[in-house]
Structure of ABC transporter permease:
Amino acid sequence: MRSRGGRLGDRLLHVYTWLVILWLSSPIAVMIMFGFNDTPSKSNTSWHGFTLKWYQQLFEISDLTTALRNSIYIALISTVITVVIGTMLGLALGRHRFRGQGATNFLVFAAISTPELVMGASLLSLFVSANLPRDAITITIAHVLFSLSFVTVTVRARVVTLDPSMEEAARDLGATTWGTFRQVTLPAILPGVLAGAMLAFALSIDDYVVTSFVNGSTLTFPLWIVGSVKTGIPPQVNVMGTLIFGLGVLIAIGNAVAARRRT
């Protein structure tokens, strides 16, 4: 039988947990709320009433729409590239033993722990030394580089849990190397690949620090928001943020449901 002190400690822990959750969720709740704010001006800092007009006028600010489009395109392209390279690298690190593997593992984790300021400055030096014009291409390259380690680690964690006998059985039954990968290995590591893809997309679409070093004249959604702080952030920014957040929640729920069905 538990003591009264133990039950009180559990209750305090539950209260503390919910307070932390509410604290972390409050900025998102404010963003969603001010997307419905009937503000008469561009400054969206005080509540004036409920309206849906900003959802109807979502794409009326052309520069903001272009910045959002740039962010989505860059995030999609960098995610595809990162997932392909990261999956192959995760398979190599999790399945094979080769000379230089320790150094490769070190570099992968070093890229994760490197401050964004250092990575942004180093990439800027690289592009300037190579005389590359800074635009959407350099942003995409930068996003691939800082997202690659996260995908690699996620896929590698899935690979090390696989049973090699499944692939050996497929080859014994006549499957080719590509057929074994497509029908056995890929379905087994798919949850890790999808998780890595979601992580890479999220890291890309909301990155500000690294992007600000290598963007040139190309504006992304976070850069546009920071640049508009002095003149006032329009309600459309909150609406776009709400839609991006809602899409992320739906993808996460769908992934969780699919994982439960597989088990």
